[in-house]
Amino acid sequence: MPLPKLSLQVFEAFEQVARTGSMQLAAREMGLSISSVSHHVARLEEELGVVLLDRSSRPFELTREGREALHHLSAGLQHLRRATSETAVGGLLGARSLRIGIVEDFESNVAPELAVALAGRMPRARLAISTVLSHEAPERLRGGKLEVAVAAETGDLPGDILADPILRDPFLVAMPRGIEADAADLLHGRADLPFLRFNTAHLIGRQVDAHLSRNRIALPDRFTFDSVQSIMAVIANGDGWAILTPLGFLRAQRYAPQVRLQPLPMSTFARHISLLSRRDFDQPTAGAIAGLIRDSVRRLAIDPITRSHPWLAEGFTVLEPGG
Description:
It is a single chain. The protein is α/β, with parallel strands linked by helices and 323 residues long. Helices cover 43% and strands 19% of the residues.
């Protein structure tokens, strides 16, 4: 059977609609009109001679043929994205040294993949990858200790630091599985379960406290922790609840079966994880590294959690360049 003569954008449109269950959300992520995305999906169905989406359901669901097509097409697109970024990195780095700081959220999955991808393509260069706290990343870049950093944006970056957004990581409520209270009960003190705070020495703790304050919500200050693993452990034991993000939930997967996630019952807010670099650093290289990280984030973070929590697909998303 000859291969269909379709553009890569057709395949990407189908992949995005399959992931989000919505033409509108897919269009927003791709920077296209809804009609363009719909046309792309219909064009793919026409070429393959099958119906890929059940349009009678909301969100859209994949047909059996759609699931099979998605499996093969996503694998192919991931290989293309990764090959493009890895080739670009290999061609741009030359004989340099490269020092990268990465937030702890990525230390167990994205950072190892990035290390393997870069080490194999830097035969003459020095490579160092270290953990960095988000609020410390800009000064470490400005001080010459790092060339690039993957960190949550603080919102007040110095003018000599550039940010390439990679991931929107929304805040949500995490509570013990099996309790009768819902997120609104917890947030407004109608349940006898203590709130578990992040230490405000860390950016995430300041972000959560600031958002609560903006919404005139005051919660007792009894338990404070530095790490999401400690918070997840206490929640899993049935002794508290917290406001955290999907990345935090994924970091502590050993406790996930005992933890239930719910949307935040107030105005939504999110962290933006970005690739930060000095303005004088080679931006094509920075962009190629960001591309590698986006691919890893899709496969290792977004896809696993949106399969088990489909309602997160709208907010927990990769941010494309210029998007």
